[in-house]
Amino acid sequence: MDKNRKxxxxxxxDSAIIGEGVELGQNTIIExxxxxxxxxxxxxxxxxxxxxxxxEDSFVxxxxxxxxxxxxxxxxxxxxxxxxSIGKNAxxxxxxxxxxxxxxxxxxxxxxxxxxxxxxxxxxxxxxxxLSDIQGTCEIGNYVRLHSNVxxxxxxxxxxxxxxxxxxxxxxxxxxxxxxxxxxxxxxxxVIATGSILLPGVEIGQDAxxxxxxxxxxxxxxxxxxxxxxxxxxxxxxxxxxRFTGEPxxxxxxxxxxxxxxxxxxxxxxxQSLKLN
Amino acid sequence: MDKNRKxxxxxxxDSAIIGEGVELGQNTIIExxxxxxxxxxxxxxxxxxxxxxxxEDSFVxxxxxxxxxxxxxxxxxxxxxxxxSIGKNAxxxxxxxxxxxxxxxxxxxxxxxxxxxxxxxxxxxxxxxxLSDIQGTCEIGNYVRLHSNVxxxxxxxxxxxxxxxxxxxxxxxxxxxxxxxxxxxxxxxxVIATGSILLPGVEIGQDAxxxxxxxxxxxxxxxxxxxxxxxxxxxxxxxxxxRFTGEPxxxxxxxxxxxxxxxxxxxxxxxQSLKLN
Amino acid sequence: MDKNRKxxxxxxxDSAIIGEGVELGQNTIIExxxxxxxxxxxxxxxxxxxxxxxxEDSFVxxxxxxxxxxxxxxxxxxxxxxxxSIGKNAxxxxxxxxxxxxxxxxxxxxxxxxxxxxxxxxxxxxxxxxLSDIQGTCEIGNYVRLHSNVxxxxxxxxxxxxxxxxxxxxxxxxxxxxxxxxxxxxxxxxVIATGSILLPGVEIGQDAxxxxxxxxxxxxxxxxxxxxxxxxxxxxxxxxxxRFTGEPxxxxxxxxxxxxxxxxxxxxxxxQSLKLN
Lengths: 277, 277, 277
Fold this sequence. Notes:
Largest sheet of chain A: 12 strands, mixed
Largest interface: A-B, 47 and 50 residues
Helix content of chain A: under 10%
Number of strands of chain A: 33
Structural class of chain A: mainly beta
CATH topology of the largest domain in chain A: UDP N-Acetylglucosamine Acyltransferase, domain 1
Radius of gyration of chain A: 21 Å
Distance between the termini of chain A: 47 Å
Oligomer: homotrimer
Number of helices of chain A: 2
Shape of chain A: globular
CATH architecture of the largest domain in chain A: 3 Solenoid
Strand order of the largest sheet of chain A: 3-6-9-12-15-18-21-24-27-30-32-33
């Protein structure tokens, strides 16, 4: 970059605590009582709202709004000491909006134009793809991967190591519109393929696989494959072979380790080491 | 907030009319001949384009573009006196884009990153969810609720009190690509559940229910439930029970009143009172 | 506009090359080694990143990020001389994000909030609708039309004159999650209707039509219509009549010429003239 480039017109409230080595882009606004960990980079045109905490070594792309107002601000113009906490080493790509009053772990990643509403509890090493929309009041475990354009309705519960592919919707209203909502529960290691719809209250078993374009109206048992509209269980996941290797493709944790905690060993070795510790 | 915080670098054209008590965020641009009603709040980094009217007591979140250029501007760089009119008490959440030359009633709400194109006629008390995309040249009645990521094709006609849930698409081209389009018509009190596709020219009857993931190729009669791909009418809505109460769930207007004009009474009492007046 | 309106606070790096007649909006940032062709208009709040080339007579709407950082920047804070090249006469609507290291031809158009990732090779006269998400490492031919909210997975290959309608997803992982991906191939003049899902590795034949809401698990032959979940070939496209005229609707190139190279003649005349030259 030009040595002489001067970022201008950013605003940092007096009460904000900015760590060493933080860089701020042009026009960015850091509001009152924000805490930014050391070496974090906040790009141009961002708004980091009152009371937001962002951990060290993070990156926030241009045009993000972090700690977005909840409805009470809109009606009262007062912000009641809400907090958004995002762990260290986050990578929040440009155009994303994250509300106040959620808690997000370390090593969080988003794509672009993501929306995450209030009262979302999100674990460590979660990634959320471009245009995904987490409606808030939900729990998402560790090492969960949401691909692009996933919609997580309120009251959803997603365990660790779950994969959800593009255009999947987790719904919550059995007889819309109504006021008694019931969320979807997705258990560990389950995989929900592209364009599936999970109806209110269904539970997807551990290691189950929901095929592309399924409309899931009933629970899916662990290790089962469910496909179609309405979805039916048609097989055990352990019968599916990798098209290239001819080896079983599932449970995927024995065949896939990219960015997983067992990345440098195998799932079994890692799991044994956990038990020893 | 800091008493000393000074918003800077906003631009207000001399010809704009700004009501009492209006607040403008940093970097916001108010172009020529804009009219902003009293007590309205326009947050940071917004562009309010020439000739836009926004009613009193409204809130426009950060990074919105209101009165966006139509194609003729892009080709001619001249803006031909277009007008966008938005009623009072609007709540337009951050990142939304609304074109010039539409008319929107009072008590309008949007989620984030919404797009509303030109020649949209939208009634009162309508809400449009995050990422929804209204393609313009369409009519939307009063008290219509579009949830997240709904796509309303051109020439759609949506009556009062309609609910449309996430990832529903209203299409308009029977033999794509072609130049003879025909819109979808959705009658009052109908409910279109998540992920349904309504094919060009279909009409959804009053109080009908289209189930999640349906592909609707033919008209659906009033009070009927249609599900599947292609969708078939399988039941009368009045046979569906609320899962928690065991009571009939439809017509929903007898069981749901949140933010509806009959919120403080019942639908029947409200309807009778209308007739008396 | 006000004669006296002064755009302020834009930044242009010393090394950028700005053509005659270029206009820059308020707060826009033009980084190092950018090249902007003559008469191009870059609206407010844009970031045009290092090394981006945008052709003459183009329009870039507000809040766009053009030449967006790849992951290596995020981790190293160094930008390794990446280039994004966009041809002349582009129309990139507001809120769009285009990564560095892609190549895009002339007469390119986007809707709003589009994302185009790195290593996308895009031909001339392509349009990409609002909220569409091109994941990169893919090839898109000339005169391709992607409507709103289309998701193009990595390794996709799309030939000339293809139409893809809203909420279509081109996938690439046969046994998700895995690391051996295989893209979808769509041949010339094919039409993919709203909400279809194309599974990894399928090939859609020239002039084929995939119906709305189809889940395509196998190749579709040229001229065939495939519908349903899972999709089945049910007819020859040449049997489909235009609802209004009663004439055959396909192959569409004989009945539709808007913005096509045969706009001022017929497809056959144009095709013959090509052979003569």
